[in-house]
Amino acid sequence: EKGGYEHFMLKEIYEQPNVIKDTYRGRLLANKGIIQMSGVEDNLEKFLNAKRILIVACGTSWHAGLVAEYIIEEFSRIPVEVEYASEFRYRNPIINSDDIVIAISQSGETADTLAAIKLAKENGAFVFGVCNVVGSSISRETHAGAYTHAGPEIGVASTKAFTTQITILTLLALRLAKAKGSMNHADYQRYLLELEMIPEKVQEALLTNEISKQIAAIYKDASNCLYLGRGYNFPVALEGALKLKEISYIHAEGYPAAEMKHGPIALIDEQMPVIVIAPNKGHYDKVVSNIQEIKSRSGKIIAVVTKGDTQVKELADHVIEIPETSEALTPLLTTIPLQLLSYHIAVLRGCNVDQPRNLAKSVTVE
Ligand code: M6R
C-alpha cells in the first residue's frame, strides 16, 4: 500500500503533483479566467462584506494559514489574522458577526480547532472549513467549506495536506480578488496560469531528492538547525523546522530571516546548519545579506534557490534549485526540498518516519 515507497511519508511527498492537480480540478479554469468553488460562490456576499478573516488551526495547518495570510491580504486586501486554535479558544477573543473564520484541518478532528469553531459560531461568525477528511467533525461543524483532495495522509508528518491547503487558500484569495477588483486583470490571469503549472513544477522540485539526500548525510548528526525565510516563505521556514523536529528529533527553529539579528544570530557557529529559503523574487537582496551575516560567523548554509541563481550559490555551502514561479506561489515549491531533507535525515538517523515517538496523526485531546 506504500506503492513501492519505503515510507508513507515519501509516497505522500511524491503524490503532491497529482493531489495539487486534484485539488484545483474543476475549480480552476485558467484559460477562461474562472475560479469556482461552490462553498465560496454560495457565500460570496459574506466574503465580500467581511471586515476581517480569522484563521484558526494547529501545527502544519496553522503554517498553511500563515501563508494564506500573506496571500489573501496581498490579493484580496482583506485583513487576516492567524491564530493557534488552542490560544484563540481560551482567551476570550473578539469575534464579530461580520468576521469570517477559516478553520484549516487535515484530519478535521483536531479538538482545539473544533472548539475554536464552536466558539466562533456562538459569536455569530461565518465559519468556512478547509479539511481533507470528508465527513470529518470539522467539515460537519462548519457552515461551508472546500475540501482539499490530498487523499488519505497516513504519515504523521503532514506533507501533501500542507500544499493542498495552500492551493485551496490561493484559489480563494484569487476568487475574492476577482470579485473585489483588488487585483488587475492581467495579474489575475497570470496567476491562474501559473497556478495551473504548479504540479509540473512540483514534479521538477522532486528531482531535488538526490541532492537532499546527500545534504542529509552531511548534517544528520547536527543537534540544532535554523530555518530562515522572509515574506511568503517565512511560514515555510516554520514548517521546515517542524518537519525536522517531529521526525528526526533534531532541535530546529524557523525564523523570519530579518529577526536573526535580534537574537538567534548568537547561536551561529560552525556547528550550526542554517537552511535559507532564497528564491529570486521578493526580498532576494535582503536574504543575500542575511546569508552573508551567517557566513561571516562560519554557519553552514543550505540554500533553496531559484534555478539559475548565481549570487547565493557563491556564498552557500549547498544550494538546492527549484523552478521559477511568481513570488506568492513559491511556498508550493520551496516546501518540497525541505520535506525531502527532513525525510532523509530521519531515515539516516534510524527514526520511525511515519510514526514518530509521542505523536498521533490526529490530536483529539485538548
Ligand atoms: O489534522 P490537522 O490538520 O488539524 O492537524 C493539525 C496538527 O496536529 C498537524 O498539522 C501536526 O502538526 C502534524 N503532525 C505536522 O506534521
Automatic annotation (TrEMBL):
Record gene name: glmS
Name the EC number(s).
2.6.1.16
Q: Name one GO biological process term.
A: carbohydrate metabolic process
Catalytic center at which residues? 361 (for fru-6p isomerization activity)
Q: What does this protein do?
A: Catalyzes the first step in hexosamine metabolism, converting fructose-6P into glucosamine-6P using glutamine as a nitrogen source.
Keywords recorded for this protein, A-Z: Aminotransferase, Cytoplasm, Glutamine amidotransferase, Repeat, Transferase
Main location, first listed in the record = cytoplasm
Reactions catalysed, as given in the entry = D-fructose 6-phosphate + L-glutamine = D-glucosamine 6-phosphate + L-glutamate
What GO terms fall under cellular component here?
cytosol
According to the record, which residues of the full protein are present here? 250 to 615 of 615
Source organism, top-level taxon: Bacteria
> What is the protein's given name?
Glutamine--fructose-6-phosphate aminotransferase [isomerizing]
Q: Where in the cell is it found?
A: Cytoplasm
Coiled-coil regions, chain positions: none
Molecular function GO labels: carbohydrate derivative binding; glutamine-fructose-6-phosphate transaminase (isomerizing) activity
Query: How is this protein organized at the quaternary level?
Result: Homodimer.
The SIS domain covers which part of the protein? 43-182, 215-356
